[in-house]
């Protein structure tokens, strides 16, 4: 592989992986390199949560459990930190009291990065943060195909008088014209709904649904093929709510739902999605107070690494890097 001069993970010979301050995957900080293709940012905000709070502590928890992520991805035969410059850009500044002000603050900080050509992988935070991130990404790329892994639809309208909360980001995004309504896909849905009209609303917001039960009835290849067909070749935003996983594999989250998918199923499908034009993404809803032995932190950190790997295999990145960087 051609040496692109990108700075990768901290050298282990100086300090073991368990020592030192934890940037995501022990990657350089944004201020340690000249430019970034992808910035991992933490967004410590959970005031849009409808049930158990605590996702504001997610970014720190995920970083702490990302120390064991390695430089080589064996399935894709690629080095995700070598074919693109990935940095940890720290946390966005965001206050907990005013959801509207917080969303504006996240948008302003995300916009600064996206206008520089840096793609964002955000660590939440609750799912509210997807709305300002979608606004920033759509401003650069136009309407987005959203690939959304979650136990819940998150296309609901108003709750307790709030139109912006962690159950509404994709409804608001559709209303604002940020989504490509022909190319959005939910995966892993199984949460409770009050009325079938919610499913009609969801369809109008541009989504089709692969429920969690489909992982029992279909092969991983079939599911990946359906996803790829639905998303198409335009710009894709990947939003991952850690509650898509079964609570046995990710207990540390705000609105757990039993009957979820496993990390093995999840990664099997994710790894069949190379070639998508991923322009941004998030891993949200990690609430460490409900975690045990770092199980959720590890799942989220590894999920972010899988997503970063896919971002390194996007068509734009492939054309600007060596041919040998391309995985299967
Ligand atoms: Mn969600």
Automatic annotation (TrEMBL):
Q: Which GO terms describe its molecular function?
A: agmatinase activity; metal ion binding
Q: Which Gene3D superfamilies match?
A: Ureohydrolase domain
Name the Pfam families on file.
Arginase
| A Gene Ontology biological process term | putrescine biosynthetic process from arginine, via agmatine
InterPro entries from the UniProt entry: Agmatinase-rel, Ureohydrolase, Ureohydrolase_dom_sf, Ureohydrolase_Mn_BS
Per its UniProt record, what CDD domains does this chain match? Agmatinase_PAH (cd11592)
Query: Which cofactors, if any, are listed as required?
Result: Mn(2+)
Give the source's domain of life in one word: Bacteria
Instruction: Name the SUPFAM superfamilies for this protein.
Output: Arginase/deacetylase (SSF52768)
- In short, the EC number is 3.5.3.11
List residues binding Mn(2+): 127, 150, 152, 154, 241, 243
- Describe cofactor binding as the record notes it: Binds 2 manganese ions per subunit.
- Keywords of this entry: Hydrolase, Manganese, Metal-binding
NCBIfam families annotated for this entry?
Answer: agmatinase (TIGR01230), PRK02190.1 (NF002564)
To which protein family does this belong?
Answer: Belongs to the arginase family. Agmatinase subfamily.
What is the name of the protein in this document?
A: Agmatinase
The species this protein belongs to is Agromyces luteolus
Q: Which gene encodes it?
A: speB
